[in-house]
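Each lists sequence, tokenised fold; shown next:
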Amino acid sequence: MVSLYHKSLKALVLHSSLALDPDFGQPLGLLWEKLWHRQHKASPPPGETSTAKKKRLKKERLIAKNRAFKEKESYRWVEAFQKVNKLFKGLEMPDGGLLMHCDSCL
């Protein structure tokens, strides 16, 4: 995943899945990519106290925790695996198989 991050900027994020030779680790090519962006978070209210901030963040964490898995960022790795698996379904694989590497960085 490649991202340009700054609090005031909206960034594009690119999740990539790379095929690697399982014996030597040599890159074979990209298998799948998805370009997306995070939703902009609202700014905290002006003059927010530390107690109010703790309550607001606790509420945000609870909402995130209860979000459906398919709506979470981590689902993109499952989506990548499913798409790559579909690409190679029915193809003859080498004895060592195929190594897929997904990475993320901010």
Summary: The chain has one domain: 2-103.
